[in-house]
Amino acid sequence: MRSKILIPLLLIVLLPLLLLSLAAWRLVQSERAALAHQVQSLVAAQLQNVDDTLQNYFQRKQQQLDTALTELARVLNQSTASAIEPVLDRYNREQPGVRQLFVLTARNERLYPPAQLNPQEQRFMTRSAAFWDNLSALQQNRPAAPAPADTPSSLLSRSAAVSKTGPADDLMHNQGWYIWQWGTQTHLIYWRWDQQQRVWGIELDPSYLLAELIAVLPATSADASAAARLQLQDANGTVLYQWGDYQPASQQRPLLLRPLSHPLGSWSLSYFAPALTLGRSQLWLISLAAITAVGLALGLLAWFLYREHQRELRLAQQRVNFVNQVSHELKTPLTNIRMYAELLEDRLDTVLEDEPHTGDVGTPQRYLAVIVSESQRLSRLINNVLSFAGWQKNRLALRPRPAVVDEVIGTAVETFRPLLAAKQIGMTLHLQAPQQVSLDPDVLEQILNNLLGNVEKYVAAGGQVTLASWQRGEQSFIRLQDDGPGIPARERQRIFEPFYRLGSALTEGVSGAGLGLTISRELARLHGGDLALEPTPVGACFLLRISALPEIAP
Amino acid sequence: MKVLIAEDDSHICQGLQDLLAGEGYCTIAAFDGEQALQLFEREQPDFVLLDIMMPRRDGYQVCREIRQRNAHVPVIFISAKSEELDRVVGLELGADDYIMKPFGTREVIARIRAVTRRCFSQREPAELPVAFTMADLLIDPAELRARRGSEQIELSLRDIKILALLHANPGKVISRDVLYDHAWGRAYLPSSRTLDQHISKLRKSIEHDPARPTIIQTVHGVGYRYDG
């Protein structure tokens, strides 16, 4: 009983808590994802910003170089190669950021530096060997040549990035950046064609370039608002420059890593920031508080319900005990009433025997018969109430011993004979169960008393009742058929329910608690059988079946 | 036959005494467990009716004590406690039967007769009363029954006593005083009608036509006679 209520109560408390926890967890997860996404896009925007700054620098650089090279080409066009050489030498030497200038003819012959290379020029040639190996690809891109192949060498990329903001259409394919890695440094060559299909190229000074790049980037501790660290890395992963206040751990992975746009595509930008924990823990705290509050409320509710339930149980138990007690107490006076009435009846039989019978219905015997029958009825009621209480407490049990079914029927019939005779109800017996079997005769008698009591109550005067018994193997059958008002079809199932009584004019004025058939069926089932209502054209017909039980020797 | 009735409710006790006396038993009454054991020692009854809930000692204890002194004397429990546990305990203590309150007189008589038959069956064959015939009746005192052909007639102990006395003196008139002393005992105050009423009732069960009796003849003003 105790655990039966505890389990649903526990479920009532735990299920909502579980669901709530799950919901809170999901909320925290999604919140975290949203936050991470937000930060990512913020960081991405910031990196994009840096990238744009660098792009702007390259654009400016390109324009500046274009101007210079166009001017040099114009000078060359107006003079001879030997005259121009000092001009180029000077440019090569004096222009800041320019490490080496070179000019190729339309046939890819080197115009500058001249055939006789000084050591500096010699080192340039060695360093930029990769560029010279790819000259043919450059050749294919000449403007006068047929349409260039769709896939130029990956190294010789046309300046697509620049072209977006490029000044003129005819320059679109006539210029570009060449990037390569030499030693630990990244080298850049800017090249362009002039109208005579000459190639003008400038190798930029890497250190100068880096210094210029750093100059356009924010100062090392400029971005004090956000505790973050940005790093510019070259193709080897070497950190070239970093800014921001945050100091990442040695093994910390960047929050976001993004390659730079052309021409420094092999370089990358990294963004480091402390892990986002603050918002998460706050949300957890709120969820935890909510769950605790709900849990507390549910727990209190469950405790309250449990206490109420226990109180109800105790009260019910007290009521049952009270009924039991009273029923027992009723037995002694009832015994006396019945016994003395029967003794007096017996005595009167002999005393009045010799006197002439007046035929008066008000004889003392009649009065006594009423006292006896009413006390019997009261006995049945008390027995049924006690059996019902026992059934409710699962304490009904049988006491099998050898008995003869027909003899038990005989006893019950003898009890009812005077009552039925008084109502002029005829009784026919077909008793064919004479074998001794192991059963509980008290239980069988109680069932029969209930059935015969119903006959006495409901069958009209002058009616008929037929009682038949037979045995088949271990089972004994008793059929009780009357010609009374019967039981309406729709009530057939309900008559066995406790406290149910047929609601009709028939039952009005007839006493009863609605327990007789309930208890009789339960007792029959306990006895390995059943009590059922049989279909019959007239009246009511009950079939009782009981099984022989293994005997428990006293 | 002597019966000890132990029952604390005086009305039930008196009623049972009347009932058993009517059957022809000699009864002794005890109103609590102690008294019941004392009377059992002193009177050596043939069987015992025991209430369970009694003052001083309950029926179970009395039954246990009785079993320790005499293993064979039949014990019938009378109780309002009809719950299974009580029944099991009662029967395991060695009770022969139990009667549940509220009981009817017929039920009590039937059970008393059944126990009486068992008492007889436990005796030595030599001690058993001998069966005898009266007219077409075969009377078996040990069975408390008479037989006529296939018909069985239930008789009380007192019926048997009356019939046995008449049978032992065929053709003689037995005076009412003698019959009364024999069947009821001197302890009872004679009532002129008691014997006649009993004979009348007995005739109803054994005679073919109670209005014209052939077995028990009335000798007016004196007593009764069996003609053999």
Low-confidence sequence ranges of chain B? none
Which class best fits the helix and strand makeup of chain A? alpha+beta
Give a quick account of the main beta sheet of chain B: strands, pairing sense, barrel closure: 5 strands, parallel
- Rounded to the nearest angstrom, the radius of gyration of chain A is 57 Å
As an assembly, this protein is heterodimer
The major pleated sheet of chain A works out as: 6 strands, antiparallel
Largest interface: A-B, 36 and 33 residues
Estimate what percentage of residues of chain B fall within beta strands: 15-25%
CA(first)-CA(last) distance of chain B: 27 Å
Helix fraction of chain B, binned, reads 40-55%
SSE blueprint and pairings:
The complex is a heterodimer of chains A (554) and B (228).
Chain A (H helix, E strand, L loop, with lengths): L1 H77 L2 H14 L3 E7 L5 E3 L6 H9 L1 H5 L1 H6 L15 E3 L1 H4 L11 E8 L2 E9 L5 E6 L1 H11 L12 E5 L5 E5 L12 E4 L8 E5 L5 H74 L12 H29 L8 E4 H18 L3 E7 L3 E4 L1 H18 L5 E9 L2 E8 L33 H11 L3 E5 L6 E7 L7
Parallel strand pairs in A: 12-14
Antiparallel strand pairs in A: 1-2, 1-6, 3-4, 4-5, 5-6, 7-8, 7-10, 9-10, 11-13, 14-15, 15-17, 16-17
Helix pairs in contact in A: 1-8, 8-9, 9-11, 9-12, 10-11, 11-12
Chain B lengths: L1 E5 L3 H14 L2 E5 L2 H11 L3 E5 L7 H11 L5 E5 L4 H9 L4 E4 L4 H18 L9 E3 L2 E4 L4 E4 L2 E4 L2 H12 L4 E3 H9 L7 H15 L10 E3 L3 E3 L3
Parallel strand pairs in B: 1-2, 1-3, 3-4, 4-5
Antiparallel strand pairs in B: 6-7, 7-8, 8-9, 10-12, 11-12
Helix pairs in contact in B: 2-3, 6-7
